[in-house]
Amino acid sequence: MAGRSPQDVRLSVQETRRELEFSLGDLKAKIAELTDWKKQLSEHRQEALIGAAATGFIVGGGIAGVVGLFKR
């Protein structure tokens, strides 16, 4: 590093900036894709339906159980 000219350092900094801009753009695109809940839901429709059914069954059973305790 001691043998680098100021021009070499400037070129290195510019290249690093370009790489960072590309990386940041790529990261933004990936975040946008992962947080697109409509796309995620359409891609994982079966899993979402199974989860919703299981949750409804558990919540419904829990409510029925609590109501059954109070009716005794």
Beta-strand content estimate: under 5%
Order of helices and strands: HHH
Rg: 28 Å
Question: Helical stretch count?
Answer: 3
Shape: rod-shaped
SSE class: mainly alpha
Number of strands: 0
Number of domains: 2
The largest sheet, given as strand count, sense and whether it forms a barrel, is: none
User: Which residues form runs of ≥5 with pLDDT under 50?
Assistant: none
Provide the helix percentage: over 70%
Q: Write down the overall mean pLDDT.
A: 90
Distance between the termini: 83 Å
Explain the overall architecture:
The protein is built from three helices and no strands. The protein is rod-shaped, with a radius of gyration of 28 Å. 0% of the residues are buried. With 72 residues, the chain is an all-alpha fold.
Short note summarizing the structure:
By secondary structure, the chain is mainly alpha-helical. It has helices spanning 6-34, 37-43, 45-71.
What secondary-structure arrangement, pairings included, does this model have?
Elements: H1 6-34, H2 37-43, H3 45-71
What tags apply to this protein structure?
72 residues; 2 domains; 88% helix; rod-shaped
